[in-house]
Amino acid sequence: MVLRLWDANTGQLTFDSELAVGGVCLGFYTPPTGGGSITFPDIVGATGFALSAGGRGTLYTTDNDLGYLRFNFNELTAGSSYALFAK
Question: Which helix (DSSP H) or strand (DSSP E) does residue 14 occupy?
Fold first, then answer.
């Protein structure tokens, strides 16, 4: 399966799984109600980014403070789905 994501505002291609220059898609996730973290203990030292499946802004941070990739979402992201990437 090929995954391609375009910027909702500009129409510009932001990710193409056939090229994988934008990172590796970890899948689609919905943050916990009220905000929270989604972690990937097997991914160490990578940076992460998220794209909203609905084209809305994404309110999150990423870190490796636990020794692996973690996405931290705030309470305003509840109910929205995001494609998460590691690079």
Answer: strand 13-16
* 3 state SS of 77: helix
Opening angle at CA 14, ends 16 and 75, nearest 5: 115
Residue 35's closest CA among 67, 61, 57, 54?
61
Neighbours of 85 (CB within 10 A): 23
Q: Which pTM was predicted? A: 0.71
Instruction: Please tell me the distance from the alpha carbon of residue 62 to that of residue 84, in angstroms, as a whole number.
Output: 11
Contact 46, 87 (CB under 8 A): yes
Task: Write down the pLDDT at residue 62.
Answer: 94
